[in-house]
Amino acid sequence: MCDYSLHTVASRDAKIDDVLVSCRFPGTETRGFCTKDDPLTAVCLRPGTELAFQDDVRIKGIFFRRKVGAHLARFRQIDTNKPTEHHDALEFSNGRIVKVTDLATGQRARVLQMPADAATRRTTAPITIELRATQL
User: Fold this and answer.
1) Percent of the chain at pLDDT above 70?
2) How confident is the model at residue 90 (pLDDT cuts 50, 70, 90)?
3) Cα 55 to chain center, whole Å?
4) Do residues 18 and 35 make contact, with C-beta atoms less than 8 angstroms apart?
5) Alpha-carbon 93 to chain mean position
6) Comparing C-alpha atoms, which of 9, 11, 44 is closest to residue 27?
7) pLDDT at 3 over 80
8) Does residue 105 form part of some domain?
9) Which of 15, 33, 112, 130 is the S-S candidate for 50 at Cβ 3.0 to 4.6 Å?
10) How many Cβ atoms from other residues are within 10 Å of residue 100's Cβ?
11) Does residue 65 belong to any structural domain of this protein?
12) pLDDT score at 116
C-alpha cells in the first residue's frame, strides 16, 4: 500500500524479486520505495510483504543516522485511526517498528515474499492421500 501522501505520485504494485530503493519523491516530504530504474514511481507494498535489506537499515535522525540493527522486515500499517499521519511501516526481525517515511534514502531491499491473496485461498478442504509401503 502507498501512504496517503503519495496519492499524487505515479505508483505500481511490488512484485517478488523487485529490488527497491528507499527514496524521497519530488514535490513531497514523504519517503517510500522506488526502483533504481524508475525513481519517480512509488512501489506500493501490501501488508505482510517481506523485505530483505542489503545492509543494516538506517533511519534519519536530527544530526546522525541511526541503525535499526536488522536486515529483514515485514511491511505493515500502524496508526490507521489517525488519518493525517503516515501509516506505512516496517516491522523488523528484532521487533522494532519504523515508519517507511523515517528511512534514510538510498537503501536497497529485495522483495522476498508477498502476502497470500484472499482471492486465491483454497475454498475446499485439502485432499489427504495415504501412501502404504508395499511388501516385497
Assistant:
1) 79
2) very high
3) 15
4) yes
5) 13
6) 9
7) no
8) yes
9) 112
10) 22
11) yes
12) 80
Identify the residue whose cell numbers are 541503525.
67
Range of lowest pLDDT (39-43, 44-48, 65-69, 97-101) = 65-69
Question: What's the grid cell of residue 61?
Answer: 535522525
- CB count, 10 Å around CB of 86? 20
DSSP symbols for 63-125: SS-EE-S-SEEEEEE--TT-TTS--EEEEETTS-EEEGGGBPTT-EEEEEEPPPPGGGS--SP
Number of domains composing the chain: 1
Tell me the residue length of the chain: 136
3, 86 contact by CB (below 8 A): yes
Which positions ≥6 away from 76 have C-beta within 8 Å? 47, 48, 89, 90, 91, 97
Q: Is residue 72 part of a domain?
A: yes
Full residue range of the structural domain in which residue 75 is found: 4-117
In a domain, residue 76? The reply is yes
